[in-house]
Amino acid sequence: MPASDGRFGGAAAAALNALMDVALETAATLVTACRRAVDAAAARLARDSAKDGRIDVELLDRGQVLAYDLASVAGQVTAAQEMLAYGERGGLERLLTVAFAGMVAADLAGRIAGREAAWDAAATLAGDDVAAALRTARDPALLEEIADRVVRDADLPRELSEELSMVRATFRDFAEARVAPVAERIHREDADIPDEIIRELAAMGCFGLSIPETYGGFAGGDGAQSENDLLSMVVVTEELSRGSLGVAGSLITRPEILSKALVKGGTDEQKQRWLPAIAAGELMCAVAVTEPDYGSDVASLKVTAVRDGDDYVVNGVKTWCTFAGRANLLMLLARTGTPQDAHRGLSLFVVEKPSYPGHAFTHDGERGGTMTARAIGTIGYRGMHSFEIGFDDYRVPAANLVGGEAQLGRGFYLQLDAFANGRLQTAARALGVMQAAFEAAIAYARERQVFGVALADYQLTKAKLARMAVLIAACRRFAYRAAQQLGAGEGQLEASMVKSLSCLAAEQLTREAQQIHGGMGYAEEFAVSRYFVDARVLSIFEGADETLALRVIVRRLLEDALVAA
After folding, report:
1. Range(s) of the domain holding residue 347
2. Pick from 374, 394, 411: which residue ends a domain?
3. Measuring CA to CA, which residue among 111, 109, 84, 107 is closest to residue 97?
4. Which of 82, 145, 542, 559 is catalytic?
5. For 411-462, how does the pLDDT look when each residue is reduced to its tens digit (9 = 90+)?
6. pTM here?
7. Where residue 167 sits, what CATH number does that domain have?
């Protein structure tokens, strides 16, 4: 039992008492060693992938296995570095920090094992101090102590101001009262999101987060979001996703993407025309970028928009257009140049359409042409529906070209900033799903008796619950930090890293939560089965994990390594 000062008595607990004294130092030792290993591997891969002083994609692709491992671990190490400040708060925060450092170091050691030459000799986690720190950080007694604490209170310590704590409480209450009660029905029936939920979220200001106050939103005059704005977005998105990813967790994303593009490149007339209505929730938005043959390879998109008098005539097929049925506005990225123009031949359009319920619609354009759509059946992430849309000589007014002729061929670049926000938001969505699954696992483990003992009292269950807590704490801390960096005009790399880390963590965590439920975890009557299938989409959309790792994260790491060299 704990002694009166919160420490542990008895010889059997001496090791844990010692660990609690040196926990943060232990974490710092491991993080330093891991960072050294990552930097050494990045320097080696940068040398192997460089051509004429720049990273050559063809050369980089020859080492994709190492590059992917490096991108994944680099995100973990960066998160572990951010956790050190969290651990300085003491108590549970310190234990979570050292346990995460141990998880990261063990993962890195496993990726290096047998491939030391590829990683570079300097990348090995050598040294007696590192070995001792790793033993301490991976002691099962540490996980047991974390579990004992989080089973009593699954709401892990956060670093939020009083204002953000109030925002969180407001949306947590809303999600529990309005979202969670309909989540299971909407998932099982693949039903539409109730209009009243959308109206209430609009009244709460959810759709104007990146829209300047001049146009009815909450961002600064130039549309730039402050650190507090972005932290609010993360907090709100997490709480709504905890209620349901498909019902509420993703509603903010599409208005954010279109709004940022309009603020950045739209004409004054376009801003006045659309932004106030988007902010008020009167116009719902969807994004039409991906095509059946091209997802992350945006430069190869084929849907065309050809000028004809006062219109652009659109032909081709877009897919994975989430919420496109309910939406009034589609943000369409189409080719106005030649295929050889690649990114520079793409332009952005706002396509106006009526709102359609259900899983299919056909719309005859007022100026001519047809838009035909069907929802794609999915195993999870239901409610918003993801559509495949075919455009057949569909005419869009030239006035709907975002930015007018001055922005012709610059559509790809107009949406870049929004992608970073979307990745950060996806990390927040993952956090919400993780928190919901974590709470469900704890509740079930407390109640379930196995061989006459509560499941939560078994050491292995404790280890599972503790690792869940560690992952949530690390991803949340990293998401908060990335929000601060984006608010300061930086953080593009960190937003990609936290998206990758959090989405993979959500898959792992929801799987373990389902496993703790045993057979009931496979039953649809338990929400944990929904969390599991919902989590699976997270590392696919907003940038598939492999593409994010190989084309965004590792390229930036290697470019930085070249500069450092």
Report:
1. 285-411
2. 411
3. 84
4. 542
5. 999 888 777 888 999 999 999 999 999 999 999 999 999 999 999 999 999 9
6. 0.93
7. 1.10.540.10
